[in-house]
Write a structure and sequence with these properties.
Elements: E1 5-13, H1 20-27, E2 33-38, H2 45-51, E3 55-58, H3 65-75, E4 78-83, E5 88-90, H4 92-95, H5 98-102, E6 109-115, E7 130-134, H6 152-155, E8 158-167, H7 173-190, H8 195-207, H9 211-227, H10 230-235, H11 238-255, H12 259-272, H13 277-289, H14 293-306, H15 321-334, H16 338-351, H17 357-369, H18 373-385, H19 388-400, H20 404-415, H21 422-434, H22 438-446, H23 453-468, H24 472-484, H25 490-505, H26 516-532, H27 535-547, H28 554-559, H29 567-575, H30 580-596, H31 600-606, H32 617-641, E9 655-657, H33 667-675, E10 687-691, E11 696-700, H34 705-712
Parallel strand pairs: 1-2, 1-4, 2-3, 6-8
Antiparallel strand pairs: 4-7, 5-8, 6-7, 9-10, 10-11
Helix pairs in contact: 7-8, 8-9, 8-11, 9-11, 11-12, 11-13, 12-13, 13-14, 13-15, 14-15, 15-16, 16-17, 18-19, 19-20, 20-21, 21-22, 21-23, 23-24, 24-25, 26-27, 30-31, 31-32
């Protein structure tokens, strides 16, 4: 009898001469034997394997991967089996963990996470991750493709190994997928009611973005699982694939925007598999899409708490903590909890600092929360690490928020690492112009190649600065140079000529309708005028932009004026929207942005625009913010008006009715009630209110403390 070894590496090969040497070299010092079933290689695969000391068994290819794998199992002498593909490796640091895993007497198998990032995020079943298991004669593979070991003992004793397999993309990936799908179809024909095969086929449809069709197969799989008895469910490895089945079904429904159905499926999955955190993440994301923000927060926060307490009997969660934190940050942002949102984005970035889009989200919230020091810390960190990519992103962010001094600092650090180019020169000149440092800008401009496209852009920016500061003689001379610049398009030259006449002669003569790029130019000029503090000049451009009829950009246009609190311009934009539905959407977005910047009074005025329209959940957020703002104003007013009388806001007998002079009403409460605009008009009044700051009375309605509380809510 052959000596019983500790670990056998098994694999199926076919023309793998390019990948096999690296795989064998990577593994040979960590396994006791290598067993290979070759299914008809015509290249040097067999020779390479034998030279590496592998036992190679050549077998006929009968279009059945289980047959080939089971041949390996029959020939293997190790107590444990590790299956890899020839294009897979495991890092040496993680291979060291193997000995510890193999010493566990209570485990039958381990899941190894398969890193397939190079395959465009193809979804795969966690059953494929079961690569390391005990060598028992009852453990044999089933199905021609997407093979698995359906055994009750193995299903109930599986753990997460914490080991990652690095999977290199197959050179003939499309052919392999086609072959697997063909064999899968044959399996389905032989076993039409097999839940596992229906689930696998659903995944393949999902990978092809055939969401409607994938839902059909996922639902069939769930239905068939419900029809099985408990013993059959255990035998089918349901503990591995059914949680993932719920996840994939929820995914497909979400992709078709069937959010309510997706939530129902995910809730059922969470109830049955409460420790599979991916279901909670997707549930939280669906709740976010349904605008059920409080429920989303609960789901996502619960998921984060469970991340360190995973159940080994369920699939390895695939959704990273950084993704959960980012979704949670977005939910808090929708709830106007900007500090919490910022904290979530920062933590997400700490976990995954390769996700550059998080930097933009963090930057936006630092402006709202006043935490500019956060970006400065990021900048110090990136310059210390000489991370050129991050430095470029931060430079773009600073430029976007008109922090031109910081852009120049970034540029100086960047140029110490890379050579100075026409582009970096143009960025410096642009910042110097915006900062009003014209002499420095002129000197730098003299070093710029006049034939470059950057030179033309700087000329245009120069003339915009001159217009903003009423330097018309200089701008007329510069306009002539712009006309001679070949890198500037003729349509742009004509646009700037028209803008010059508009500002200098108050006459708009641009004949052709503005194209999209011309609209963007005018919009950018308006924004620069606002930054320069030239409000009147910026206002002149608004009617020009409205003439273009680009209603999809009106919300963005109005947002520029929120910080100016210019209701005249915002209302002008609102009146130019063609229908009530678009007006309602515009109104909602602008109110939301007003609340974002803490401008409750502006948001209050915006609610009065046009017809009364339903704002959804935003209406409740606005009411809460508006209520708190009025309450703050009222309390502040009390400090000045009632200092001598209001050390405590108790009930004081200051109200006298015509019929009952002894009636007691809380004066402060009643004053607050009227400050909210909730009282009726004077014509219906039958009670006198005493005003302690004017020593006079005025008529109001008869009301009790209880009625006031009820009406305020």
């Amino acid at each position: 009898m052959a000596e019983k070894k500790r670990l056998s590496l098994c694999m199926v090969t076919f023309n793998d001469e390019k990948d096999l040497p690296y795989c064998l070299q990577n593994m040979k010092h960590f396994v006791d034997e290598i067993i290979i079933a070759d299914i008809g290689s015509t290249d040097r695969t067999v020779d390479i394997a034998e030279q590496a000391g592998a036992d190679v068994y050549c077998t006929k290819w009968n279009k059945d991967f289980s047959e080939a794998k089971n041949l390996c199992l029959e020939k293997a002498n190790g107590k444990w089996i590790l299956f890899l593909q020839p294009n897979e490796i495991i890092s040496a640091e993680q291979l060291i963990k193997l000995n510890i895993l193999l010493d566990d007497p209570n485990t039958e198998g381990y899941l190894l996470y398969i890193d397939r990032r190079s395959e465009n995020y193809r979804i795969s079943s966690p059953v494929e991750s079961l690569r390391l298991f005990r060598n028992r004669k009852e453990y044999r593979y089933k199905y021609k493709a997407f093979e698995c070991i359906p055994d009750i003992c193995l299903a109930n004793n599986i753990k997460d190994s914490g080991i990652r397999i690095i999977h290199k993309t197959d050179a003939d990936l499309s052919y392999k997928i086609q072959l697997l799908n063909s064999l899968l179809q044959e399996d389905l024909n032989d076993h039409p009611e097999d839940s596992y095969l229906q689930y696998i086929y659903g995944i393949e449809l999902l990978n092809r973005r055939m969401f409607k069709e994938s839902i059909e197969y996922f639902q069939k799989a769930l239905k068939n699982m419900e029809n099985l008895d408990n013993l059959s469910k255990m035998n089918s490895l349901s503990s591995l694939f059914v949680p993932h089945l719920y996840k994939c079904l929820g995914w497909s429904l979400t992709s078709l925007q069937q959010y309510s159905n997706a939530k129902e499926v995910l809730e059922e999955g969470v109830k049955k598999y409460p420790f599979y955190t991916d279901l909670l993440v997707l549930k939280g994301d669906v709740e976010r899409r349904l605008k059920q923000y409080e429920s989303a927060v609960r789901s996502l926060e619960k998921c984060l708490m469970m991340k360190e307490q995973l159940n080994f009997l369920v699939p390895i969660p695939e959704i990273d903590v950084s993704v959960i934190l980012e979704i949670l940050g977005d939910v808090h942002e929708q709830l106007f909890n900007y500090q919490k949102a910022l904290n979530c984005y920062q933590k997400s970035y700490e976990v995954n600092n390769a996700d550059n889009k998080l930097l933009y989200k963090i930057a936006g919230l630092t402006k709202i929360t006043g935490k500019d020091n956060i970006l400065e810390e990021f900048f110090k960190e990136t310059t210390g690490k000489k991370d050129i990519e991050k430095m470029l992103i931060l430079m773009e962010i600073f430029y976007q928020y008109h922090d031109y001094s910081k852009v120049l600092v970034c540029l100086k650090s960047l140029e110490s690492l890379v050579r100075i180019t026409e582009q970096t020169k143009s960025i410096r000149i642009s910042c110097l112009i915006m900062l009003g440092k014209r002499e420095e800008a002129e000197f730098e401009l003299s070093t710029l190649n006049k034939n470059s496209s950057f030179y033309g852009q700087i000329l245009l920016q120069q003339i915009e600065y001159l217009w903003a500061h009423d330097k018309w003689d200089e701008s007329e001379t510069l306009l002539e140079e712009i006309y001679q610049c070949e890198s500037i398009k003729n349509s742009v030259k004509a646009l700037y000529q028209s803008l010059y006449r508009l500002f200098n002669e108050n006459e708009w003569q641009h004949i052709d309708p503005m194209e999209s790029d011309e609209y963007d130019i005018v919009n950018a000029i308006m924004e620069k005028f606002l930054w320069f503090g030239k409000i009147d000049k910026a206002k002149v451009l608004v009617p020009i932009l409205l003439q273009c009829g680009k209603e999809e950009k009106y919300s963005e246009l109005a947002s520029r004026w929120i910080k100016q609190e210019d209701m005249e311009v915002i209302e002008m934009i609102f009146r130019n929207i063609s229908n009530k539905e678009l007006q309602s959407e515009f109104k909602r977005k602008i109110i939301e942005q007003s609340l974002r910047y803490g401008n409750i009074k502006l948001a209050r005025k915006l609610t009065e625009f046009g017809d009364s329209q339903v704002l959804g959940e935003l209406e409740y957020i606005f009411f809460a913010r508006d209520f708190m703002e009025r309450l703050k104003d009222f309390i502040k007013d009390l400090k000045y008006k009632y200092t001598s009388m209001c050390d405590s806001l108790g009930s004081v007998a200051l109200y006298q009715t015509k019929t009952n002079r002894n009636r007691k009403v809380n004066r402060a409460l009643l004053a607050f009630y009227y400050s909210l605009g909730l009282g009726s008009d004077k014509n219906s009044a039958n009670q006198y209110v005493y005003s302690c700051d004017t020593d006079r009375t005025y008529e109001t309605e008869e009301i009790t403390n209880a009625e006031i509380h009820e009406r305020i809510g």
